[in-house]
Amino acid sequence: MNADNLIQQSKDNKEEFWKEQAQAISWYTFPKTITSPDENNYNQWFADGELNMCYLSIDKHIEDGFGDQIAIIYDSPVTNQKKTYTFSEAKEEISKLAGGLQSLGLKQGDTAIIYMPMIPQTMFAMLACARIGVIHNVVFGGFAPQELVVRIDDCKPKVLITATAGVEIAKRIPYLPLVEKAIELAQDKVDNIIVYNRNLVENKNEYFEGTIDYQDLISKSQAADCVSVKSTHPLYLLYTSGTTGKPKGIVRDTGGYATALKFSMKYIYGIDPGETFWAASDFGWAVGHSYSVYAPLINRNATVIFEGKPVMTPDAGTFWRVIQDYKVSIMFTAPTAIRAIKKEDPNGELVKKYDLSSLKKQFLAGERCDVATLDWFDQHIGVPAIDHWWQTESGSPMLGLMTGFDDYKIKRASAGKPIPGYDIRIFDENGYELDAHHEGYLAIKLPLPPGALLGVWKDFDRFQNSYLSQFEGYYFSGDGAIVDEDGYVFITGRVDDVINVAGHRLSTSEMEEVVSSHPDVAECAVVGIDDDLKGQIPFASVVIKNGSEISDEQVEKEVIQKVREKIGAVASLKNVMVVKRLPKTRSGKTLRKLIRTILDGKEFQIPSTIDDETIIDELIEKIKIYKK
Ligand code: COA
Ligand code: AMP
């Protein structure tokens, strides 16, 4: 068997292929139905199968005699802590927390928000929910209260699980004031707040009033068993940025997802059970869900939870130290992390201090990887760096290489070839399929394979409008791409209002909503501009209201602060420029792409639809002054 045979099999008989992959995981009831339509006629996988994700991740391995194997490695340079948990130790805490959730009245189908930092308890909370069929929604700790509010009001959680603090390098971030603010602003009231006390910050006593102490709950609770859930039961919701201001609650199923993850560990990542896998991502992102928690655990790999940054915690050698200390065999990070390391350690001096012999491959995703970063990696680390492409929506890679076989070939700057189940096409804007070497919109023929989204939480219309209506019979990814003559795909970037800042997916329209809410702002345009470290960063061009007496500097400062308060520091909006007018089409549409191209200092063409060409010179002049 080689990769080509496997890919061919997946095309020849899709149902048979995925049925066989589903046999690699344990089911309480193995599905008889492999594909079937849901109530909206959208495809679902293994509908009559039953299983439990926490069982697959933890209990199964204990039953198989691996209870004493290390499952979780927690390494926190920011708090000077290191701790490991075996599968049996993890089960002890997870099952008691699950019992505690049940004692609070939570049951299958309820939702829970988890707003926590990179600590094992976050993972325990996710797995405890999965154990009893509660649908979790992890919210990235770098988001501001307003982001929490949107999620509370959309998924109406019965419980919110949080911690007293996160740590950003040397800065301690108290979570409870943020949670309190969110609870105050949300329309829906959350019945239970569970707080894990890290004893890192002083919190006012009133923040704890009416909350439940995590440790206390565990010590009082009976262990709960895994419940059997339908394959289509939502394991989690993960909100992601779309083209409109409000994030979309991506719904992930259980059976299709578990099947896809197990498949990916064997064939895409090529890792055997028992080895150590490290995805250096926050739990709040899709990578964190799939490759810090569920995939490694299902595959019986030890997974590393790293509470730190690639640099400054304490230095740019920290990733290499972790690889050495835990014998990491496969690592996954965003190119921005490697760029940050390269900037601090251009000659790879820190790399030489560590033994990286355990490392077999480095996977990269989240944003386009530039060749200079790959060069640095090749020169100093010397293991294959493999780019692959996926989205929150897919839950696992859609483009990549089948490194489980030895015959894979890397093509630089390409994110690889379609993964089995993903029938990828490139269309022009009228829906005509393009040949090799023509840039167009990346779409995927329906049905999507197991693991991909089931929909948008309680909003089929939004699901349809966001993904299914652009090209009939296809899922539209929002990315542009080119395919070459060998079938390798080159992602050219988002074609919508989504930007990738340091591997974090953010919506410029959401930022525009916040900027426009400033009382002195008449209108604005937020675009993503190139950045050497973060790949892209947002840039806001702002027009001040006529008659407003505020200074440009003051508006710039206040807009930056507003975005930090409403979206979070992670938005990284540091550039705000006041302009007299924005370039627009005759029908009044802001020419954002033109603004972006000018800001990036690239050559641009004046669109024929422009209303007033003189605005371009105004803008160029203003940028010259701004950049000084
Ligand atoms: N809680 C609170 N604040 C957070 C946060 C969190 N979990 N995560 C980030 N922030 C804050 C940071 O403190 C920073 O605030 P500041 O503007 O006050 O300094 C801001 O959000 C931006 O953070 P970040 O994007 O992480 O930038 P950085 O300059 O601190 O670090 C990198 C740059 C490249 C080192 C860092 O972005 C990185 O490690 N990126 C890898 C991303 C990744 O793994 N993505 C996952 C997809 S695979
Ligand atoms: P997220 O949903 O946060 O994982 O972000 C998904 C988006 O990140 C995709 O739509 C792409 O725009 C971008 N992305 C992810 N992986 C890659 C990659 N390997 N190359 C280029 N862009 C990528």
Automatic annotation (TrEMBL):
InterPro entries: ACAS_N, AMP-bd_C, AMP-bd_C_sf, AMP-binding_CS, AMP-dep_synth/lig_dom, ANL_N_sf. This is Propionyl-CoA synthetase. Belongs to the ATP-dependent AMP-binding enzyme family. Gene3D superfamilies: 3.30.300.30, N-terminal domain of ligase-like. Residues 510-589 form the AMP-binding enzyme C-terminal domain. The lineage of its organism: Bacteria, Pseudomonadati, Bacteroidota, Flavobacteriia, Flavobacteriales. Residues 66-445 form the AMP-dependent synthetase/ligase domain. It holds the Pfam family AMP-binding_C. It comes from Soonwooa buanensis. GO terms for molecular function: propionate-CoA ligase activity. Residues 5-55 form the Acetyl-coenzyme A synthetase N-terminal domain.
